[in-house]
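Quick one, tokens below. Sequence please?
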């Protein structure tokens, strides 16, 4: 990529911390002149920023190519029919950017490209002999994020590397598992090469269930994801997925007193009620109500017969949070495979059905055969409980599972249905304790199964001329997120400290004054270093040394060569490393500079 003169490019550095930026990477990317915002979640990449982007893309390309994937490029503007085939036009929700063209045709700006690539495959791939295939692109994605923030960490237009693999088998040569493992290993190499400190965690695989999924999480306090790792080092998961180890439960304990109704008006949330009742949140039961439906019920409803549907009441302690994915899985795995949770407008639906939302107790299931009551083990205990009174603005004290629920003919399913927390037992039940921390999701690998291929009618013929479902994997990396994450973990109070692999330049030459002998030496070193394969930035600005050094710290180029009269008098230049490994700097003979910079 060669050399560049500062005066001939645009590097608008700034001393001011921009008010809109709250995390270090966002502040530093703005201050170092890498990016500029032009609207919510929309960024210009300036010359320095683009160079970093290109270096990251090169690393990603090298590793994808050597993992056996081949690059293509799909459009960002996609006819809505594509997403309608898989119902993602609805399921993707408000994050999908939709638009209508001059002919009234509806399109979307792609948030990911499963449908587009599956259509492409369907057009050309008909036989098992053509599989497996692994295709990827580095392309602009659009998501109408509810809260774009933290600079390029969460924006509405961003570059993603997305790969899709296609297989006939899960196991064996050419199977999904082999490719998944190769992509997983390639991801490790990519993030290692980019200088990131990351954890690999098990991730939620969504309503299709069963399949494996891992997220690559940069360990950083600014991360929006909560991850839990066992202190034994053998389990890590996103909180959305993290299971909790066995916890004993007991629903048989005797009542602690008579059920007592208390008027609790105008008390939003557990905290308020807890203060008012003088009951700690961990002695209160919190309930969430969802409608459930059997998969066949939509068809039955359309045919005019009664829908096979009802209510799930999920119960956890007041200081815990219900995990919707776990409730969904319990419903399907333990109760009936065909059941799904209805998530949209569930609260309004429950209210319309007579549930006193905000004041529901486990006893709301009494006398209702269509209610499925599920309690977390920590909530399924004896002792004192306060909970809702199944009546607006009222709670009860001395709720008792046996007297108020079991003895009234209601079955209680006890299962892990809450979010894991710091200190919980590891699900491996090996004495490990889960520790919570924050992570930035930079990459995601996912065994999709046949969800997209089946929905879009993409199948191939096997060696016996039998039609076979195509099994897919998908693999995403946020290019911009890598940059911001790298800065989060590689900066100091003066600016960015780039990992050498993704720095915009390898070396910065700073002549104190770009004239006379200093200019000659600068030009010569620039040419020699460039010939040796380094990317060089020359600070040829007519500026005082102070601001030049401050800018050098801010933009964080790994090697800095300062050319001033004192050093020149000894036939030297001063060499400093931005990572501090050369201390305050070292005098290096001009003839030795190239060797020192390239070793
Ligand atoms: P998140 O949970 O952070 O919203 P996601 O799970 O929806 O992300 P994926 O669909 O898995 O994201 O996309 C693959 C990768 O694209 C992510 O791992 C992340 O690195 C990147 N990415 C996703 N959304 C954004 C965004 N709004 N801005 C920048 N990068 C993003
Ligand atoms: Mg993801």
């Amino acid at each position: 990529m060669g050399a560049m003169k500062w005066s001939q490019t645009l590097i608008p550095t700034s001393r001011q911390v921009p008010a809109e930026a709250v995390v270090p990477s966002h502040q530093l990317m703005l201050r170092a002149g890498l990016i500029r915002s032009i609207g919510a979640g929309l960024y210009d990449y300036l010359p320095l920023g683009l160079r970093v982007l290109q270096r990251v893309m090169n690393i990603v390309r090298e590793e994808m190519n050597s993992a056996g994937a081949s690059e293509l490029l799909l459009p960002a503007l996609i006819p809505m029919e594509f997403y309608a085939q898989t119902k993602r036009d609805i399921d993707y929700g408000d994050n999908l950017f939709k638009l209508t063209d001059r002919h009234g045709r509806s399109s979307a700006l792609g948030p990911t490209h499963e449908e587009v690539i599956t259509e492409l495959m369907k057009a050309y791939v008909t036989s098992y002999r053509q599989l497996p295939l692994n295709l990827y692109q580095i392309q602009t994605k659009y998501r109408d994020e509810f809260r774009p923030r933290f600079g390029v960490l969460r924006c509405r237009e961003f570059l993603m590397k997305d790969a899709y693999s296609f297989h006939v088998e899960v196991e064996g040569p050419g199977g999904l598992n082999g490719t998944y493992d190769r992509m997983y290993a390639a991801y490790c190499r990519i993030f290692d090469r980019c200088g990131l400190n990351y954890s690999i965690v098990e991730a939620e695989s969504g309503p299709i269930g069963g399949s494996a999924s891992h997220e690559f999480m940069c360990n950083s306090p600014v991360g929006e994801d909560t991850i839990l790792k066992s202190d034994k080092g053998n389990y890590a998961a996103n909180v959305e997925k993290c299971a909790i180890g066995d916890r004993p439960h007991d629903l048989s304990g005797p009542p602690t007193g008579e059920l007592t109704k208390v008027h609790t008006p105008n008390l939003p949330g557990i905290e308020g009620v807890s203060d008012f009742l003088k009951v700690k949140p961990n002695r209160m039961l919190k309930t969430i109500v969802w409608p459930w439906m059997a998969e066949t019920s939509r068809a039955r409803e359309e045919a005019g017969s009664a829908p096979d549907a009802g209510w799930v009441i999920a119960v956890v302690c007041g200081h815990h949070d219900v995990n919707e994915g776990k409730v969904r899985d319990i419903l399907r795995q333990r109760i009936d495979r065909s059941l799904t949770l209805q998530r949209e407008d569930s609260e309004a639906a429950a209210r319309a059905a007579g549930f006193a939302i905000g004041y529901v107790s486990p006893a709301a299931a009494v006398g209702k055969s269509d209610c499925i009551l599920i309690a977390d083990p920590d909530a399924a205990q004896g002792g004192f409980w306060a909970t809702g009174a199944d009546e607006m603005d009222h709670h009860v004290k001395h709720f008792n599972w046996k007297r108020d629920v079991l003895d009234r003919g209601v079955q209680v399913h006890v299962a892990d249905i809450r979010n894991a927390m710091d200190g919980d037992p590891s699900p491996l039940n090996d004495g490990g304790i889960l520790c919570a921390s924050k992570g930035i999701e930079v990459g995601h690998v996912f065994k999709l199964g046949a969800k997209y291929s089946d929905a879009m009618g993409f199948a191939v013929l096997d060696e016996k001329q039998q039609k076979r479902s195509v099994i897919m994997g998908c693999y995403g990396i946020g290019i911009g997120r890598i940059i911001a994450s790298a800065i989060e973990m590689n900066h100091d109070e003066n600016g960015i400290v780039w990992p050498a692999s993704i720095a915009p330049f390898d070396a910065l030459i700073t002549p104190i004054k770009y004239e006379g002998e200093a200019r000659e030496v600068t030009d010569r070193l620039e040419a020699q270093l460039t010939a040796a394969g380094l990317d060089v930035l020359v600070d040829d600005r007519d500026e005082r040394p102070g601001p030049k050094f401050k800018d050098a710290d801010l933009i964080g180029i790994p090697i800095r060569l300062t050319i001033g009269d004192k050093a020149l008098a000894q036939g030297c230049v001063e060499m400093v490393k931005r990572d501090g490994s050369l201390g305050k700097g070292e005098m290096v003979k001009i003839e030795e500079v190239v060797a020192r910079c390239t070793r």
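The chain has three domains: 24-244+435-487, 260-414, 505-598. The chain is about 25% helix and 30% strand.
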